[in-house]
Design a protein that fits this description.
The complex is a heterodimer.
Chain A (H helix, E strand, L loop, with lengths): L20 H10 L4 E4 L6 H12 L3 E5 L6 H5 E6 L2 E6 L1 H8 L2 E5 L6 H4 L11 E4 L4 E4 L5 E6 L12 H4 L3 E4 L5 H12 L3 H15 L12 H12 L4 H10 L6 H15 L1
Parallel strand pairs in A: 1-8, 1-9, 2-5, 5-8
Antiparallel strand pairs in A: 3-4, 6-7
Helix pairs in contact in A: 7-8, 7-9, 8-9, 8-10, 8-11, 9-10, 10-11
Chain B lengths: L19 H10 L4 H17 L5 H12 L6 H16 L2 H17 L6 H15 L2 H18 L1 E3 L3 E4 L3 H15 L2 H15 L3 H8 L4 H9 L4 E2 H16 L5 E4 L11 E3 L2 E5 L1 E2 L7 H18 L3 E2 L5 H22 L3 H8 L16 H13 L8 H15 L5 H15 L26 E2 L27 E7 L4 E13 L5 H10 L1 H17 L2 E6 L4 E2 L1 H12 L9 E5 L5 E8 L15 H19 L2 E9 L5 E7 L7 H9 L8 H13 L5 E8 L11 H17 L2 E7 L8 H5 L3 E3 L6 H12 L2
Parallel strand pairs in B: 4-6, 8-9, 11-17, 15-16, 15-18, 18-19, 19-20
Antiparallel strand pairs in B: 1-2, 3-7, 5-6, 10-11, 12-14, 13-14, 16-17
Helix pairs in contact in B: 1-3, 2-4, 3-4, 4-6, 5-7, 6-8, 7-8, 7-9, 8-10, 9-10, 12-13, 13-14, 14-16, 14-18, 16-17, 17-18, 19-23, 20-22, 20-27, 22-27, 24-25
The chains are: A alpha/beta, B alpha/beta.
Bound molecules: adenosine-5'-triphosphate (ATP) and magnesium ion.
The site of magnesium ion (MG) has 4 residues of chain A, from α2.
Chain lengths: 267, 763
């Protein structure tokens, strides 16, 4: 049986606050409110949760959601073994028992009917019924549910039900302003501030093309990738093309104008 | 109507037209050609869309004259049909005098028959040229060709028509799609030179039939055509300069001196072609120009010109241009290489100030010294001022005003007697990425107010048929309240055209359809639904099976249905596609001569086909409005109707006109969509502009109402998504649709993009 210690975040994950989200998160946690983190891909949502788990000293159990996930994947199931069958808790159940923060990443990827299993945990009941096992798990007082949600998804079909959405307190994330984002890239990768600033500038040039053939802007994550490549000795322009332009689009005109932007920024 | 047995003598002049206005115009035309009468109604209606009421009389008068030339029905016919396309890109008051002059000249010569091809292709030509100046150049080319290839007998009078001219006029749109006007001109020269006065050879060459003619045309393709890089440039403008000005090419055919780019009220003007120069590619040269123009837009403030002498102004411009370049390089250091490569380095000893005017030469050296740290000018004065420039720059005090003061000081001290000489040393003084600085000066005495363009009010044609109107409220943002029953929406079945036209459109896109089909096949299986608790499913459901085993081992009755199956009909989507059918859809696309509407029609046909393949429930409707009393909602396809000939026939007949009262149309469409029981209900709006109507002057009013309509729909569980064809949509579309919108910069891509966007939305 895994213990809470197995899920402890041992080292402080670097997190650069953009606003008062740390204080607000602490308040939400103190009230044990379920939390939803909204924002575009790669803008620091997951990092924020890790940081908070470390700061609050609570274990963190992360589940990356996908379309084929069933309720049993969250709650648990019986397994066969030599002696017959054995129940195994799913990550959600485990978190509820251990008093961990359970982070459901990219929740819209999961099917809507799967998600209803989280409902009883997210209201005043704070319980999780294990129908198959005939057990009602009362959540540990430290337990908290956090989900991440990217409303920028162009798909309308993948959206959360109102009844799900309305169980959470929400934090809106966005890409940080250029000073902050530069600081993040520096701390994450150790490259020089001037270089980091130019990577951020390129990302911002790309973000302005959103809606003109780009569905999502260039994320902080991709800037960090480019910076790492540069740290490995790649030429900045090449690193940018590889990490910040090619991954996001196949449109030749957009590629050309972003390549030009790279030239303009890095020479 | 012809009565059998009796020869029809009835004069076409007596023909009845659709409405009194057209009738009056027809009477003015005083035209006896039956073939013109046959199409006049349609042409007049089309012209009314493109021309203002003030322009119509001249249009009719020109048609009348063309009918009286004694060249049959063709010239007036071609003009009637083609002119609205011309006016869509070049204002009539600029284009018409040019045309009339050419008509007169040709009419007086043996080349009169060439009028017909001239008029027939003029629409396509104008769309390529896009400015009056370019049109003037084009017509000059045609007249020049006529003069040089018309035969003369006994060297006295021109008596034989040019064999080349009609051929050239017929292929002109094709030529201009390939090469800029300057290239056409060189190709023309080659043709005249190669074919001599050999009529058959001239015909072959100018019809693009002879191989050497085609080869020579290819040669003229050197350089980067504006048209080919337009979207890239626009994207760069957006991403680097956050500037969404329109980019408009000008013709370089007849200017021997380099014409500089410039800022005009309607956008940034750039040459239609640029060759590689000094190691800088054509497209980078375009971008250097755009960077400089954008720099001015961002950092320059206009000065009052009246107080300055021309000499002083030149100096001010040199300093200000250098300041802009320095700022550009500061902002985007990578552009330094490009700007420095393009900026000349005039050799200090290249000219003699005792004998020629070296003012420009000295200013260009000064400009170089200002922007290039590695350049030091031997002239102490230039060196000193470059230093003062750098100091201002470093101190952050460099404004347009500061440049003006610096320039004044420089002008006073650098003055030479030869600055008054007429003979100016020009070599190596042109900085060709810089614009002509017309934006930098304001003149007090000449007030140049722009004429405001108001679309002509159109006569309402109330229709008695159809259902009674349905009334909808409208949101008044100013008072934060609804105006009850404010808008009347008339819904009607759209009249039918020919279904075969739609099939032909689809056939034209067969390749695209095949590609889409592959995508559709990919989407389908992803939409599978698991059905658990099957006795006979496709695979074992492990969870259920283990549960059953547990039950069985503990002596309970096990579940027998332990298999799972997958069902593919998992998509439960109803989509309503709402088309903006307002007047602006009649605009033609540059190049192809296709109207936006035609492209939209193709796109809708493909989308409908794709949705049909997917099996989603789909309805299609169009809308436009003529004041709040008359919003038309054209029903094209209902949810329960199949994608069949009846529906295609309606789509084939769709026409555009009037305005865009979008909120009412959304509410009406939403009402129909709300009745659907699907899990997802999607309203997809295809539009090319912002909400507008002729009885509303406050642009924000309908915008706010449309936003309100969208949120009403959201509240009833309907998602709206807007696909906009308006390049300026960024300014407002997010206000209405939040995050659910997309701007399509290249309308030609619509047939491909519309189905893809739908697929993405519903994946
Ligand atoms: N505020 C921040 N402080 C520290 N690092 C950050 C911050 N924002 C972004 N990053 C960097 O960006 C990367 C991506 O962030 P993260 O994984 O948290 O994104 P996300 O928002 O969860 O994205 P997704 O929605 O795709 O899961 C991190 O690994 C980190 O390097
Ligand atoms: Mg994440």
């Amino acid at each position: 049986m895994p213990t809470a210690d197995d899920f402890r975040v041992r080292q402080e994950p670097f997190y650069q606050p953009q606003d008062k989200e740390i204080e607000l998160y602490e308040a939400a946690y103190a009230a044990r409110l379920p939390v939803m983190l909204k924002g575009p891909t790669g803008c620091g949502k997951s990092r924020c949760v890790e940081h908070m788990a470390w700061k609050l000293g609570k274990p963190l159990i992360t589940v990356a959601c996908n379309e084929d996930m069933t309720a049993a994947d969250l709650v648990g199931r019986f397994l066969l073994d030599a002696g017959g069958t054995r129940w195994q808790d799913g990550p959600l159940t485990l978190a509820a028992r251990l008093g961990a923060i359970c982070y459901l990443d990219e929740i819209v990827e999961a099917r809507q009917d799967t998600l209803v299993v989280i409902h009883p945990l997210t209201d005043h009941r704070r319980t999780l019924p294990l129908d198959k096992k005939g057990e009602l798990v009362a959540a540990h007082p430290d337990f908290q549910l956090v989900i991440s949600y990217n409303p920028g998804y162009q798909s309308l079909v993948k959206d959360l039900k109102q009844s799900t959405k309305q169980r959470f307190a929400a934090f809106q994330f966005d890409y940080p302003n250029s000073a902050l984002e530069t600081a993040i890239v520096c701390s994450e990768t150790g490259i020089a501030a001037d270089l980091a600033g130019r990577l951020v500038e390129l990302a911002q040039a790309g973000r302005r093309l959103k809606g003109h053939g780009l569905d999502e802007g260039i994320s902080t994550r991709l800037i960090v990738y480019a910076a790492r490549l540069i740290g490995q000795g790649s030429a900045p322009a090449e690193a940018c093309r590889m990490a910040m332009v090619r991954p996001i689009t196949d449109d030749p005109d957009i590629i050309d104008s972003l390549d030009h932007a790279i030239g303009a920024i890095f020479g | 109507m012809a009565v059998p047995g009796i020869r029809q003598v009835a004069d076409a002049r007596q023909r009845l037209m659709a409405n009194p206005e057209a009738q009056a115009a027809w009477a003015t035309l005083d035209c006896g050609f039956a073939s013109v009468a046959d199409v006049f109604d349609d042409c007049y209606a089309a012209a009314k869309q493109a021309l203002t009421d003030d322009e119509l009389p001249a249009f009719i008068e020109t048609t009348r004259r063309l009918g009286k030339l004694g060249r049959g029905a063709e010239p007036p016919l071609a003009f009637l049909e083609g002119w609205p396309r011309v006016v869509a890109t070049i204002p009539q008051n600029e284009a018409l005098p040019l045309l009339l002059e050419t008509i007169d000249e040709l009419q007086k010569s043996p080349n009169g028959p060439a009028l017909t091809p001239l008029l027939q292709t003029l629409g396509g030509v104008a769309e390529r040229l896009r400015s009056a100046l370019a049109l003037e150049h084009y017509l000059r080319l045609a007249r020049d060709l006529a003069a040089r290839t018309s035969g003369s007998i006994h060297g006295r009078q021109v008596t034989q028509a040019s064999p080349a001219l009609p051929e050239f006029l017929r292929v002109a749109p094709q030529l201009l799609a390939l090469v800029p006007l300057a290239g056409v001109r060189r190709w023309l020269e080659d043709g005249i030179r190669l074919s001599g006065d050999h009529p058959e050879r001239l015909r072959e060459y100018f019809a693009l039939r002879s191989p050497e003619s085609r080869a020579l045309l290819q040669q003229q393709r050197a350089g980067t055509l504006f048209a080919d890089v337009e979207r890239r440039l626009a994207l760069s403008q957006q991403s680097l300069w956050q500037d969404d000005s329109r980019l408009i090419p000008y013709s370089t055919a007849f200017v021997d001196q380099v014409q500089q780019p410039y800022l005009a009220a309607d956008g940034m003007r750039l040459p239609d072609v640029l060759e590689k120069r000094a190691g800088v590619s054509g497209s980078d040269r375009y971008r250097a120009m755009l960077a400089h123009l954008s720099g001015h837009r961002r950092w320059s403030t206009p000065l009052v010109a009246d107080n300055w002498s021309p000499l002083q102004r030149l100096s001010v411009e040199a300093f200000e241009d250098a300041r802009i370049d320095a700022l550009i390089v500061h902002r985007y250091p990578g552009l330094r290489r490009i700007l420095l490569a393009l900026h000349p380095i005039p050799a200090a000893g290249a000219c003699d100030p005792a004998r020629e005017n070296t003012l420009r030469h000295r200013l260009t050296r000064l400009s170089r010294a200002c922007i290039d740290r590695d350049y030091r000018d031997p002239a102490p004065l230039i060196d000193e001022f470059a230093g003062r420039f750098a100091a201002l720059q470093a101190g952050g005090n460099a404004s347009t005003r500061a440049m003006a003061e610096l320039a004044l000081a420089y002008a006073t001290r650098s003055r030479l007697p030869s600055d008054q000489f007429a003979q100016v040393h020009f070599a190596e003084t042109e900085v060709d990425y810089r614009d002509d600085n017309r934006h930098l000066w304001t003149f007090i005495e000449t007030g140049d107010e722009e004429e405001s363009f108001t679309p002509p009010p159109r006569a309402a044609e109330p229709e008695a048929s159809g259902l009674p109107p349905r009334h909808y409220p409208e949101w008044d943002a100013a008072s934060q309240s609804y105006r009850p029953d404010w808008v009347a929406v008339y819904e009607a079945l759209h009249p039918a055209g020919r279904a075969a036209d739609i099939d032909a459109l689809l056939a034209r896109h067969a390749v695209l359809a095949r590609r889409l089909k592959r995508l559709l096949d990919l989407v389908k299986p992803q939409a599978r639904v698991r059905e658990r608790y099957r006795e006979n499913g496709s695979e074992l459901d492990l969870d259920v099976a283990i549960d059953a085993l547990v039950d069985w081992q503990s002596g309970r009755l096990p579940e027998a249905r332990i298999e799972i199956s997958q069902r593919t009909a998992g998509r439960d989507i109803s989509v309503l596609l709402l088309l903006d059918l307002s007047q602006s859809l009649n605009a033609t696309l540059p190049g192809s001569g296709q109207r936006v509407l035609d492209t939209a029609r193709e796109a809708v046909a493909l989308l409908a086909w794709a949705i049909d393949q997917l099996g989603d429930a789909c309805a299609i409707a169009g809308f436009h409005s003529n004041t709040r009393h008359e919003v038309r909602y054209h029903h094209l396809k209902g949810f329960s109707e199949a994608w069949d000939d009846t529906v295609k026939a309606r789509l084939a007949a769709v026409e555009a006109g009037w305005s865009t009262r979008m909120g009412a149309a959304l509410r009406h469409g939403g009402r129909l969509l709300a009745a659907r029981r699907s899990e997802k209900r999607l309203l997809l709006v295809l539009t090319d502009g912002e909400p507008a109507d002729i009885d509303v002057s406050d642009p924000d009013y309908l915008l706010a109402d449309t936003r309100q309509a969208v949120s009403e729909l959201a509240a009833s569980g309907i998602d709206c998504f807007c696909l906009s064809l308006d390049p300026k949509a960024d300014a407002y579309v997010a206000q209405i649709f939040g995050r659910r919108w997309r701007v399509l910069d290249r309308i030609e891509q619509l047939p491909e993009q519309l189905p893809l966007i739908y697929l993405n939305l519903t994946r």
